[in-house]
Amino acid sequence: MEPTFDLHPDRFEIVVRLCAAVLLGGALGFEREWRGKEAGLRTHMMVALGSAAFTLVATEMYARLVAESETVARVDLLRLVEGIVGGIGFLGAGSIIRSRGSVEGLTTAGSLWFVGSVGLAAGGGHLWIAVSATALALFVLVVVGYVEHRFLPER
To answer: Where are the chain's structural domains?
Structure first.
């Protein structure tokens, strides 16, 4: 069975994908906001939404190119992933702070990087991947975070 990938979703599907990105990014952003981190609810929602929008625009452009071209279109959609990851890397780097010999903000930087992948999955129509990955990330941030702070000594 070959996987299906809808290169040209209808308007309702586009809205569903964008809303999923916002809601899932918001779930992760809420956790960061709740813990008082600099990159919180709105930042995570915007990163997920931006990643989903870039994904949708790229796939729409590709679909149009294929439809209007008389030859086979040779476009590498994986470059989209590279661009999103690179852009979010700069954003995440800005959330890392070094002061008095300690480094802070690594988990927030990681969650920003991760939420970009959630937006990419949602924008690409892979909602089950986006939802499952978000659930696992929340488990890591909340449950593992609790265990880490409760049972492991501060460094």
So the answer is: 11-150
